[in-house]
Amino acid sequence: MTATATKPAKKKSTLIPLGDRVVVEREQSEQKTSGGILLPDSAKDKPARGVVVSVGEGRLDSKGVRHALQVKPGDRVVFTSYAGEPFKVGDDELLLMREDDILAILG
User: Fold this and answer.
1) Is the Cβ–Cβ distance between 51 and 71 less than 8 Å?
2) Fewer CB within 10 Å, N or C, the chain?
3) Residues 59, 66: contact at Cβ < 8 Å?
């Protein structure tokens, strides 16, 4: 009888952005071109797509009224290429950006 080793479950860190900020996990870049050529890490473009992980409470207008954000956790989004501040939480690489940096929600 053989014993199998199991990996401990990956613990998700909780990160709650403030105001109109959004936390996005960037999608992985393509490993090879359409012609089948493998790309090294230095030649890969960082994709401008990702999945919303968490959102803030919304932005305040000049009258103090809070407006809810248009995106929600789980939405696939397209954002500007230089949007957000990259950071790591555990093993996850995330982006913290304003909702204004998001261009569209992918359906």
Assistant:
1) no
2) N
3) yes
